[in-house]
């Protein structure tokens, strides 16, 4: 008897995102519970949990239409989210380097007119 090793939560999330990106389609939960085990090896019991974690993290969109919930994620949204995050990080980096430069200048100004003292241990 060979035992299969189960997928980790991150592997399940990555595989589910692959389903969305490859098909570029909108799904209901029952559709995902059928597709995920066949195509990506995600157990049907954990599909809802994985899908909800992706929705909570903003990686998958969910909309209630009538009595049904529809789920979707398109590659363009992921790309846009990465670009926005990159812009935020670049602005934080430039602010940090500017602050660093200002602090270095103030250190140089503070050193003018001061003498370094050498402490002698007795």
Automatic annotation (TrEMBL):
Pfam families: Mnd1. InterPro entries: Mnd1_HTH, WH-like_DNA-bd_sf, WH_DNA-bd_sf. Coiled coil: none annotated. Gene3D superfamilies: Winged helix-like DNA-binding domain superfamily/Winged helix DNA-binding domain (1.10.10.10). Residues 16-75 form the Mnd1 HTH domain. This is Meiotic nuclear divisions 1. It comes from Microcebus murinus. The lineage of its organism: Eukaryota, Metazoa, Chordata, Craniata, Vertebrata. The gene is MND1.
């Amino acid at each position: 008897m060979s035992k299969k090793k189960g997928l980790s939560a991150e592997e399940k999330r990555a595989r589910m995102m692959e389903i969305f990106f490859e098909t570029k389609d909108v799904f209901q939960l029952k559709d995902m519970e059928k597709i995920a085990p066949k195509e990506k090896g995600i157990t049907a019991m954990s599909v809802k949990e994985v899908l909800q974690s992706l929705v909570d993290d903003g990686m998958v969109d969910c909309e209630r239409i009538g009595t049904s919930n529809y789920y979707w994620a398109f590659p363009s949204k992921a790309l846009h989210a990465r670009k926005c995050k990159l812009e935020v990080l670049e602005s934080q980096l430039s602010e940090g380097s500017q602050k660093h430069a200002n602090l270095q200048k103030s250190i140089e100004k503070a050193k003018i007119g001061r003498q370094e003292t050498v402490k002698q241990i007795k």
